Amino acid sequence: LFWILKIYKTTYGFKTTLYKKPTDRNQFLRFDSFHNRSLKENLPYSQFLRLRRICTDYEKFKKQSKPMSRSFTNRGYPEKCIQKCLNRAKMVERESILAVKPPSVPPDFVCVLRFSNYSQPIRKIIYKHWHILENERCFKDKKTIIAYTRTKNIKEIVAPSALPSVSLESQVYRGHQSCQKCSVCCISLNITCFTHPKTGEKYPLKHSS
Predict the structure, then answer these.
(1) In the chain, beta strands by DSSP E
(2) pTM for the full model?
């Protein structure tokens, strides 16, 4: 969503508010779209907070928040979710939003998962058993977060724009092979099968990585 800042002059100096082009369209993410629920529930808050930063006067912010609320309603967002996010944004002082914040400390590890119906159970399992990984020296006292990449849409599945390049080596090798180019390779092994830690049964890796 692209917003344009409108600057106007008053008796007390210059002020700002939101300006939307006449050709502007409602392009907010639909609430029924296949995305992480926490993202959709916090999207109205981030947009209201952005509006709070743009509008110098609080009354202008209240006025502009009404059509924005209708835009979210038209995209299927629950009224309770919209009002909750709007009330949160109203409680934030504009000066605190404009203040320069110190850079956040990046995590030591980022576990990137393709978003699916199994993403939340996998996330809970990783955090539940993270203490086991901390027994390894490379994971001890390290901070990690779970991030998601979007899943493929119908167009990408049915009619991909480009076919993936397949080398002869990738056709022959099956399993996991380190690329020696990323930070994960120092803690990964070249394996063609997975051995169950309790039963000792081996499971071959049919795909290459």
Answers:
(1) 4-10, 13-19, 109-114, 144-149, 193-195, 202-204
(2) 0.68
